[in-house]
Amino acid sequence: MANARHVQRLYDRKASGYDAATSSQMLDALRSGLFARASGDVLELGVGTGATFAHYPGTLHSLTALDVSGEMLRRAQPKTLRLPFPVRLVQHDFQTLPFPAASFDTVTSSLGLCGIPDPARLFGEVRRVLRPGGQLLALEHVRPPHAWLGIAADGLDPLFERFVGCHANRRTPHLLREAGFTVDVLERRLVGILVALRATPTRAT
């Protein structure tokens, strides 16, 4: 990730208050509905403090939880002890994934794809590590579909990148389709800004 050090420092600083600042019944409901679809060996990108852990089905074979921030992972670690499946925490920039091909049945992310500077590269990596028949499940904020809100998001994008570590105008469903995925948008909230989606590869890497 081109801005990995910036994002790492940003989220290391935010880690202590991150759970309180981002607690949301709406997000929890969306995560529960989406991550209930996860199965097999799962890779989560941008796991943060582990806010998603409670929303996975207990039948997973394993969960590999990856984040660029060591402080976030340190706070996620105690939550892994309550899970009925094995969890491995990995600190790494997830623009390039440090795993062999065909390692996972499901890749997940909750508000983690919007900070990647080269989405096509990441989505190629996601295809590479997915097994045949695998899926990507993602909860993301995207560029608003409303024209004026979209223009506002374009204007705010540099501030989002600097202070939040992500992009306000990322067209994630469109970028996934360009990268060779079939995309189903399962739910939209906040006038289309927040989407839950399922993507499956349609061609080989």
Automatic annotation (TrEMBL):
Entry-linked CDD domains: AdoMet_MTases
Residue ranges occupied by any Methyltransferase type domain in the UniProt entry: 43-137
Keywords: Methyltransferase, Transferase
GO biological process: methylation
A GO term for molecular function: methyltransferase activity
Transcription as UniProt keyword: no
Name of the protein: 2-methoxy-6-polyprenyl-1,4-benzoquinol methylase, mitochondrial
Organism: Deinococcus aluminii
